[in-house]
Design goal:
This protein is 46% helix and 18% strand. By secondary structure, the protein is of the alpha/beta class.
């Protein structure tokens, strides 16, 4: 009988956040695959766990995934842990999970800490709709980074981004240039003694870190663009053309004249009667 892959969330700071279920699983599986065994051994020793470990990280994720799958096909139960938080979120574990599904290996996730959700709930920004970007492409890859930032310009959901301290100043500047002066909550040292969640704006954050060196790992929670603002911008852009030109766009798509009039009225934020009157005057 094939083994199972257990995705085990580990604390992002406070060791008391370890769940009983994860503890029991780490003690009882045959093998633990860890992002950094030197880091994870400290965690395991703290909880008196002596299960065998093997490394699974960004630089061996494809070859090691096949090795782990072979082990599981032979009946080995494997737990996957990352340095902190939930495996497969901004983590090479996503490759192992994908390969396990292809191989028919059972995968189960043991929920627990995740920096992105912790920061979102602390942020004071909208939690109803959000998107997770993880780490932006490196500033060395300017083309990929620019494309992602351009995609975020009209993002209406709250955005969550991870960043290392030595890149924080650059990413704040890039976000300001792309998105304008949005509200942002800057989170660091999550769940630890000196945890911070600072609501501010991008411009204020840039000014602060111009004079203060960033320390710790950061989670940035950024306000999405309001739908009302986007709708207003669209209305303004429609008004740059005449109503006849606006009508022609929809009629050229095969839309009946009556339906096109309704659509034009909706686009421009005016009544259907106003569209009809403008078309009459244009024909005179």
């Amino acid at each position: 009988m094939a083994g199972t892959l257990y995705l085990c969330a580990t604390p992002i700071g406070n060791l008391d956040d370890m769940t009983f279920r994860v503890l029991e699983t780490l003690k009882n599986v045959d093998l633990i695959a860890a992002e950094d065994t030197r880091n994870s051994i400290k965690l395991l020793n703290h909880f008196g766990i002596h299960t065998e470990m093997t490394s699974y990280h960004e630089y061996n994720k494809y070859d090691k995934a096949q090795w782990l799958i072979e082990k599981m096909q032979e009946g080995t139960n494997v737990a996957l842990i990352t340095d902190a938080g939930t495996p497969a979120i901004s983590d090479p574990g996503e490759v192992l999970v994908s390969e396990c599904h292809k191989a028919g290996i059972r995968v189960t996730s043991l929920p627990g800490p995740a920096a992105c959700i912790t920061a979102l709930t602390l942020s004071g920004l909208s939690t109803r709709r959000f998107c997770f970007e993880g780490f932006l492409p490196s500033s060395d890859d300017k083309k990929a980074r620019k494309r992602i930032l351009e995609d975020l310009v009209d993002e209406s959901r709250t955005m969550i981004i991870y960043e290392a301290p030595h890149h924080l100043k650059v990413v704040l500047k890039d976000l300001y240039e792309a998105l304008g002066d949005r509200r942002i909550t800057i989170c660091r040292e999550l769940t630890k003694k000196f945890e911070e969640a600072v609501p501010t704006t991008l411009s204020e954050a840039i000014s602060f870190y111009y004079e203060n060196d960033p320390r710790g790992e950061y989670v940035l929670v950024i306000e999405g663009r309001s739908l009302k603002e986007q709708d207003e911008e669209k209305r303004i852009s429609w008004q740059e053309m005449s109503i006849e030109e606006h009508m022609k766009i929809y009629e050229d798509q095969g839309m009946p004249r009556k339906d096109a009039m309704k659509k034009v009225a909706s686009d421009r934020g005016i009544g259907k009667r106003d569209v009809y009157q403008a078309l009459l005057e244009a024909e005179r």
